Amino acid sequence: MPPERARSLRAESTGSVAESTVRGVLTGRGYVELSAHAAHAAEPAAEQTAMFRDFGRRPRPARMFVAQYPIGPSIYSLPLNADFWVFGAPFFADGLAIEVKWQQSTGSVDEKFPYLVHNIKECYPCPALVIADGGGQRPGALQWLRDQAGGNLLAVFSLAEFLAWANRNL
Fold first, then answer.
1. 73: left (phi over 0), alpha (psi -120 to 50) or beta
2. 12, pLDDT greater than 50
3. How confident is the model over 8-17, as a mean pLDDT?
4. Which domain covers residue 139, as residue numbers?
5. How many Å separate Cα 33 from the centre of its chain?
6. What is the SS3 assignment for the chain?
7. Measured between alpha carbons, how far is 57 from 42 in angstroms, rounded to an integer?
8. Where is average pLDDT lowest: 14-23, 47-56, 101-110?
9. Could you give the number of structural domains in the chain?
């Protein structure tokens, strides 16, 4: 295997560990994971009490999350997915998007920060958090990302900061 591919696989593996950690935090806080299809097919809570309820549809859990949730077109008018979309979180009636960006060694993740910020601020239908960690970002990149907080971009956290925030807010 070429060394470039080995580095790519290692980066994908460490990134998925970070996403698995977020998944564990959400399930630990009582959120149910659904696929994007199941989330769209689930009956909203308001319709569950209606006299003519469709019993073929599964009720929507009060607290749920979806990984790789399609949130609409990007700033380039291409399909855009959020790493996680959380429904039923206190204080977030429109939902909460969570983006996980892990960079353990020098690479291109931090070069994508401006694209991420523009999408969050211009295209996301709900507030978003960014979890950026791993220690491999270029000098100044993480501080630049943190400085962009405002509007739909609620905050930028390390993984440890997100754990503390989730314990207080989810």
1. beta
2. no
3. 56
4. 3-169
5. 13
6. CCHHHHHHHHHHHHHHHHHHHHHHHHHHCCCEECCHHHHHHCECHHHHCCCCCCCCCCECCCCEEEEEEEEEECCCCCEEEEEEEEECCCCCCCCEEEEEEECCCCCCHHHHHHHHHHHHHHHCCCCEEEEEECCCCCCCHHHHHHHCCECCEEEEECHHHHHHHHHHHC
7. 6
8. 47-56
9. 1
* Residue 155 tokens, joined: 């905050």
Work out the pLDDT band at 55, boundaries 50, 70, 90: low
pTM passes above 0.85: no
- 37: how many CB neighbours lie within 10 A of its CB? 9
Instruction: Assess contact for 66 and 41: CB atoms under 8 A.
Output: no
**Residue 17: per-residue pLDDT:** 87
Q: Could you give the CA distance from residue 165 to residue 113 in angstroms, rounded to a whole number?
A: 22
